[in-house]
Amino acid sequence: MLDNLTQRLSRVVKTMRGEARLTESNTQQMLREVRMALLEADVALPVVRDFIARVKERALGQEVVGSLNPGQALVGVVHKELTALMGGDLGAEASELSLAAQPPAVILMAGLQGAGKTTTTGKLAKWLSDGHHTQGGRKTGKKKVLVVSADVYRPAAIDQLKAVAAQVKVDFLPSDPSQTPEDIARGALDHARRHFYDVLIVDTAGRLGIDEAMMREIRSLYDLLNPVETLFVVDAMQGQDAVNVAKAFADALPLTGVVMTKLDGDARGGAALSVRHVTGKPLKFVGVSEKMDGLEPFHPERMAQRVLG
Ligand code: GDP
Question: Is Phosphoprotein there in the keyword field (predicted)?
Fold first, then answer.
């Protein structure tokens, strides 16, 4: 079991009893512990460096008030900074999907194979058709949702989405590996328009790694669909690697948000900070189980807590 940040810092603080403020030397010592804790939580190294620099700037010279000791004071600064960087300073509405477009509002799902795109497509379809969607903090009612798969490389992927759609009782538009992804997208858009769907969610092919052909393909789907939301789906277990994957997707596509899956596992969630840092986009949802109701709006504060252990 890893020590959490408070435990780590309290050990350091024992060696400097009686200090009443955060100074260059005590802060330095404690920041080493913060650095270790963040790396253990899978925050990528360059992100950790930036973060430590920010915290140092905020922390130095801070008066340690009341019953706090320097360690507790620093944990406070770290927690506050981490929450802000996770998107806490963006306000609660940053995590809402903005579907206020001319219907059908298109949501494009992007990410590597296995990240959880198809599962998240089902979860989101359920979320929207159950009426959980909010705008400005207010529920906007049940949405009529259509899902389609543009993954022509794995017929099993199309079947998987079909099964998921049946499970959450939303309409599934069949597609076929003989079509091009662009044809599927055009057909789906047309179908959604003609049948007055509020939302069209397009699941896309993922690859095991980042490759250029895949990025070109998803970019052309983006251009064709003009989605209101382009969500990057990333596995929390991805750890350090999440940075490179997120960067590749953010470079190829104007992302609007991130969904981090598999937070029900052991991952400490440091990848959330890395992905946010690299993409600059808000985390909108987290996946917390394999089941279709395992989707929750993202809470910066909770994620900061999780990363700190
Ligand atoms: P895709 O290749 O990106 O479409 O990924 P899938 O949706 O097929 O998901 C890959 C695996 O991850 C499946 O076994 C899913 O059940 C699982 N999965 C997806 N999201 C979550 C989650 O939030 N928690 C857990 N525990 N498993 C998930």
Answer: no
Considering only CA atoms, which of 289, 290, 292 is closest in space to residue 165?
Answer: 292
172 strand-pairing partners: 147
Cα 248 to its chain centre, rounded Å, is: 15
Furthest C-alpha separation in the chain: 73
Measured in angstroms, how far is the CA atom of residue 120 from the centroid of ligand 1?
Answer: 8
* pLDDT of residue 66 exceeding 90: no
What pLDDT, in 10s, does the model give residues 124-140? 999 999 999 998 889 98
Spacing of C-alpha 65 from chain mean position: 35
Query: In this predicted model, what pLDDT tens digit does every residue of 179-237 receive, in sequence order?
Result: 999 999 999 999 999 999 999 999 999 887 788 899 999 999 999 999 999 999 999 99
Q: Which residues line ligand 1 (CB under 6 A)?
A: 111, 113-119, 206, 261-262, 264-265, 287-290, 294
Residue 179 is classified by DSSP as: S
Could you tell me which of 125, 97, 114 has the C-alpha nearest to residue 262? Answer: 114
Q: 74: which 2 tokens?
A: 């620093």
Pocket test for ligand 1, best of 261, 285, 288, 292 (most atoms within 8 A of CB): 261
Please enumerate in sequence order all residues whose Cβ is within 8 A of that of 212, keeping only pairs 6 or more positions apart, or say none. none
